[in-house]
């Protein structure tokens, strides 16, 4: 008995791409993490020519790092993921971001180890930027993992009680807990890598980081509301809680 002959399809076949928004948000989330961690290699001081202290607390100059303008977006995206897709899906995104940061660290290490061409004159400049990256990576990974997981856990825990009501409470409450843990861990490890050596500068760095990130969350909350509402309406598997 002869075996059936398999016929090739007339057109090329491809797998279907999910129509959900989850992959897009995760990709943006990961990109924000990578870019902000590289930006964080630069120490930044606002009002550097001014000095203002209240007791042991230094107010001016304002000390932060170069990732300050982008990193808060990671928590906004984390809130969107937690609110729409739940803790398990958000945890998966957090682990993917974690892996991307480790991959970046490995690439930077290999980049610095590669022999320079005779015409390449910027090895020292390259080392001055990505050479501190392993320490910043440790700071970023530790703070990010703890902070993002806490942010998602708090967000989901509050939602279990409030259902679809009081989104503002979930957004702010989760951000306060997550951002404080993240910033405390990151600043404690990364401060020396970007040139912060005094106690006053460290406290300033910590407070500015926490206050700024929470302020960003509050300022963009109207946009976050609209994004969450938009995705909920268009995700076919989203079920409104009673």
Describe this structure in words.
By secondary structure, the chain is mainly alpha-helical. The strands form two sheets. A two-stranded antiparallel sheet has the order 1-4. It has a two-stranded antiparallel ribbon with strand order 2-3. Strand 2 and strand 3 form a beta hairpin. It is flat. It starts with 21 loop residues before the first helix and ends in an 8-residue tail after the last helix. The mean pLDDT is 83.
Task: For this entry, give a set of tags.
242 residues, mainly alpha, two-stranded antiparallel sheet, 4 strands
List segments where confidence is low: pLDDT < 50 over at least 5 consecutive residues: none
pLDDT average, as an integer? 83
- Provide the helix percentage: 55-70%
**Strand/helix succession:** HEEEEHHHHHH
Question: Summary?
Answer:
The protein is mainly α.
Strands, helices and their partners?
Elements (H helix, E strand, L loop, with lengths): L21 H18 L3 E4 L5 E3 L2 E4 L1 E4 L6 H42 L9 H8 L2 H30 L4 H24 L8 H21 L1 H14 L8
Antiparallel strand pairs: 1-4, 2-3
